[in-house]
Amino acid sequence: MTFTLPNLPYAHDALAPYMSKETLEFHHDKHHQAYVTNLNNAIKGTEYEGKSLEEIVKSSFGKNAAVFNNAGQNYNHLHFWHWMKPHGGGSKLPGRLEKKINEDLGGFEKFKTDFAAAGVGQFGSGWCWLQVKNGKLEISKTANGENPLVHGATPILGCDVWEHSYYIDYRNRRPDYLKAFVDQLVNWDYVDELFGKV
């Protein structure tokens, strides 16, 4: 199986002013493309060739850094583009998701605060997550291309806190980027769709 870079589900300028056309041109067209290219090269002639992306992520963790790093980042970014949409965010969540956030995370406002804190608190490059583990919603963070799949959880929302995700638009203001992500960009219907599959 050869992996390819899918088109963005919206125009490059559709998330402005919260995420600029320039950021998406670099982040999607160059960074994500590099993960896809490097993954295809890394799995040639290995045990990972022919496996699904999720299988590669799980089976290469701790065993093959070149494969895992590029598979993890490919997986993360395939969802990342769909975790955002033009005119996203807001406070109106799908009912079952809102109920679960209230039950497990103390309400939507607390979730937003804690999710952003996880992203701000991730030293260096990585991700912050809303994940499902053992039937409960949790907030977590991981370094580099790691994700909840390798820790027995299912990610249903993730925010990329590598500098290439926000530096063009926000410079060193990671908290402002995370606030804009949650308040203005999150595609809650997609989050709810993933939640329904867990």
Automatic annotation (TrEMBL):
A single Gene Ontology MF term assigned here is:
superoxide dismutase activity
Query: Which reactions fall under this protein's catalytic activity?
Result: 2 superoxide + 2 H(+) = H2O2 + O2
Q: What Enzyme Commission number(s) appear in the record?
A: 1.15.1.1
Please verify whether the record's keywords include Iron: yes
Q: Which cofactor does it need?
A: Fe(3+)
Manganese/iron superoxide dismutase C-terminal domain ranges (all copies): 95-193
Q: Does the keyword Zinc apply?
A: no
Listed A to Z, the keywords are: Iron, Metal-binding, Oxidoreductase
What Gene Ontology terms describe where this protein resides (cellular component)? cytoplasm
Residues that hold Mn(2+) according to the record: 27, 77, 160, 164
Domain named Manganese/iron superoxide dismutase N-terminal is located at 2-84
Q: Do you know which Pfam families this protein is assigned to?
A: Sod_Fe_C, Sod_Fe_N
Q: Which domain of life is it from?
A: Bacteria
What's this protein's family per the entry?
Belongs to the iron/manganese superoxide dismutase family.
Q: What does this protein do?
A: Destroys superoxide anion radicals which are normally produced within the cells and which are toxic to biological systems. Catalyzes the dismutation of superoxide anion radicals into O2 and H2O2 by successive reduction and oxidation of the transition metal ion at the active site. Destroys radicals which are normally produced within the cells and which are toxic to biological systems.
Q: What is this protein called?
A: Superoxide dismutase
